[in-house]
Amino acid sequence: MKPAPLQYVRPASVAEAVDALEEHGGMARVLAGGQSLVPMLGMRLMRPSALVDINDLGAELGKIDGRGEETVIGALVRYSALETSPVIAERLPLLQEVVRHIGDRQVRNRGTIGGAVAQSDPTGEMPLVCLTLGARVVARSVRGERTIPIEEFFEGSYANALEPEELLVGLRFPLAPVHCRFFERGRKHNDFALLSIAVAGSPDADGRWSGVRIGLGGVNDTPVLAEAAAARLEGRTWDTATIAEAAELALEAADPPDDVRASAEYRNHLLPIQLRRVLTDLAGAEPWKT
Amino acid sequence: MEDLIEITVTVNGRAVHERVPARMHAADFLRGQLGLTGTHVGCEQGVCGMCTVLLDGEAVKSCLLLAPQLDGHEVATVESLAPDEGLAPLQQAFKEAHALQCGFCTPGFLMTATALARSGRTLSRDDIREELTGVLCRCTGYENIVTAVDRHINGEHVDV
Ligand SMILES: Cc1cc2nc3c(=O)[nH]c(=O)nc-3n(C[C@H](O)[C@H](O)[C@H](O)COP(=O)(O)OP(=O)(O)OC[C@H]3O[C@@H](n4cnc5c(N)ncnc54)[C@H](O)[C@@H]3O)c2cc1C
Ligand code: FES
Ligand code: FES
User: Fold this and answer.
1) In a domain, B113, yes or no
2) Does ipTM top 0.90?
3) Who lines ligand 1 at CB under 6 A?
4) With an 8 Å Cβ cutoff, is A104 touching chain B?
5) Does residue B61 lie in a domain region?
6) Which ligand is in closest contact with the Cα of A160?
7) Cα–Cα distance measured from residue B103 to residue B126, given in angstroms and rounded to the nearest whole number
8) What is the pLDDT of residues A199-226, one digit of tens each?
9) How far apart are CA A7 and CA A18, in angstroms?
10) Which domain holds residue B96?
């Protein structure tokens, strides 16, 4: 469990960091919280020529900012900061709830939102929430900055649209829908999920929902949106039949893996049942009537 | 020959200057280079929590930190807890509650609980259990560990 020899670079600014990534021509890796990267180095699943440690860049990458309708979270914001941030509690409560399902105290003290999104674990909670809430990923390289819609970001299991010379600098979240729910089933508490579901939407005064998004984790190569299911729920009130139809439609987005955590069959079995429960719970809250 | 990186790090209140390979993790540095073998190593992949130390006051797994990352920071290991004579109150609580058997996991729990106690948070027994999930114990079944930490933080008779 020892990494292969490598160089260690500790830039003092984002500009220096992207220079270092460029210099190594795609052979360097960014070191953020190290909660995924360091184990991968130890197992020699990765042999980068250098690590670019961004932990000194808190001033540039460590802020949580509410600007108008948008909430901007720097790549180096740690899970533990998200857990306690009043800005997140007010603006993105789903994100705050979900953090509690990730890892343990020590992992949350180090792990960062940028690292979690860059890691692109298909069962990761953070990628799922970013997808469900329609975040945009901001990436920078020596060639400049670009913004990638999250729907185009995840490309496969642990694969994404970042170039190797690019630094993820932050995530921009639009105004979140009024109502959100998160559900996850794992083998044990705080373990990686074998199925996770995030739902967001806003009901109007008559109980008709708009902006419905349903994100699913653990049932495909990447977190996915259950688009057919969401379309079934959009613009309607949610009676039992509608919810049941939507829950079955969610299977269209699922192509789950067979792995050590669960069989594909079991994940397909869980999905409609659990989604129906989450939707029923959301509909049952009937907050628009109060 | 592998490049060595110079670091200056405060360990248990004492400044140390050392040269470390970039790929050395902090637990190996503390044990092998500084001889602080109270920090244990189990899995070296962030799962068992044996290697938990405080980095600038926060509980972290030192097998997931590289030694060069320590430069300019403060580390506290289990060796920092006990006074010259006897045990620290948290250690005494572990002893009284029979919160250890083989003791291999104890440094990890002590450091995790030290950060927790200093956080000043109000903590129920369930909260404490949750906060300790990053350290595994194969002997005790956890009950007595939770009891020790609960008594240390909330006092003997507080039953939250
Ligand atoms: C015991 C344990 C339990 C865990 N449980 C969970 C869990 O329940 N759910 C879950 O989702 N995760 C879990 N994790 C993983 C954890 O969430 C990681 O912290 C996270 O996936 C990566 O964040 P990081 O900041 O540690 O990134 P790192 O480990 O530093 O990096 C991860 C990858 O992202 C790249 N990267 C990091 N930051 C950037 C950036 N700014 N720009 C470009 N590339 C970047 C790195 O090069 C690397 O390839 C667990 C980890 C451990 C050790
Ligand atoms: S040795 Fe560090 S967590 Fe197991
Ligand atoms: S006392 Fe033996 S592992 Fe915890």
Assistant:
1) yes
2) yes
3) A 29-37, 54, 75, 102-103, 107, 110-112, 114-116, 118-119, 121, 124-126, 162, 167-168, 190, 192; B 46-47
4) yes
5) yes
6) 1
7) 23
8) 999 999 999 999 999 999 999 999 999 9
9) 16
10) 89-154
